[in-house]
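User
Please review the sequence:
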Amino acid sequence: MKAAILEVLGTLARIDRDGRALHDRLDTMPARFAKIEAEVTRQRADLTRLERELEEAGKKRRDREQDALALAAQMGDDTAKLHAIRTNVEYTAMLKQIAEAKLKKTALENEALALMEREEDLGRRLKVERARVEKEIAELGGEKRILEEEKRRFETELAAKNTERGRLLGELDPELRGRYERLARAKHGLAVVPVVKGACGGCFASLPPQRVNEARLAERLVFCDDCSRILVWDEESGYS
């Protein structure tokens, strides 16, 4: 077997193995991009949740303040009416109404004060969280840019290997080219394998001594009887 043909087949096999590895790495890219996007979405959702809490606390505080003001106005009106009341029963009832309004007003003011303190706490937390989230999103953006660059590099490498693969396939005769292509497809790019310690380097089936010797002599193409892969001799791995 001409050494040049074996060299072409060996180079093709390396290109196919490397190409498959690049394909596998490219196949992981969508999930890696999705993971980054999901984390960005989660970080923003956490920040939005805190902003909503702050907004709701502010709205509740303003509502309580408005209710307290309304009660204060009502108490003023009721107090002004006291001098016009003619009976003790009505007078006592009005005083009770004013006292109850005062208690409600105090409760509303206390609640508004508690909500104000909560607003202040949420505001401090939001400031810290916003800085943290902005930093983490910036870091995730950096990771995404690195990943995009890695993807472009893999695609460039793969395109170059496909070009070289096409050139090498053109050096084979049509019958051998077709057989190699069928093997490469069927064996996931492992169409050519070395003899490893007297066995096929693809399926690891033991080889007859004659087949091992034929691979070592390289006078013709040698195929594994079990998996049909093309066998080549490797001085380092042929025997232990």
In short: The longest strand covers residues 192-196.
